[in-house]
Amino acid sequence: MAKSERSKYQAKLIGRYYDHLDTIMLQKLAELVTELYLADTPAKTNQLWKRVHKAMIKLKVAPAIIDHIMNKRSAEILAKNLQDWLKNKNKPLAATHEERKYG
């Protein structure tokens, strides 16, 4: 079988996806914060926190901040950090709210 190659269009589309991955992950986290506030069962809450953890890893959030947020499991703390990350979208995520406060 011949190896399939991506067209120029597909390569550009994939490239743009990865160029905007931070924005996509920040939006996903914002949606997850809303879902956490609305979660009605512990099972749903646990599932959402697993997704939050994966999204923060993809965003390359500092491990100390991830650990703090995951240990507290507080939608409020996540929302405060998310606000800082959205304000400082072009800056590294390692120097944001929780690291300054607790790091």
Q: Can you offer a commentary on this structure?
A:
The chain is mostly helical and 103 residues long. It has one domain (21-102). It has helices at 8-19, 21-38, 42-58, 63-72, 75-87, 97-102. Helix 2 packs antiparallel against helix 3 and helix 2 (21-38) runs antiparallel to helix 5 (75-87). The chain is globular, with a radius of gyration of 16 Å. The termini are far apart.
In short, what is this structure?
The protein is mainly α and 103 residues long.
Low-pLDDT segments:
95-103
Share in β-strands = under 5%
Rounded to an integer in angstroms, the radius of gyration calculated over CA atoms is: 16 Å
Please outline the major beta sheet. none
The geometry reads as: globular
Category from helices, strands and their pairing: mainly alpha
Per DSSP E runs of 2 or more residues, the count of β-strands stands at 0
Encode the helix/strand succession as letters. Answer: HHHHHH
Number of helices: 6
Q: How would you state the average pLDDT, rounded?
A: 87
N-C termini distance: 54 Å
Query: What percent of residues adopt helix (DSSP H or I)?
Result: over 70%
Number of domains: 1
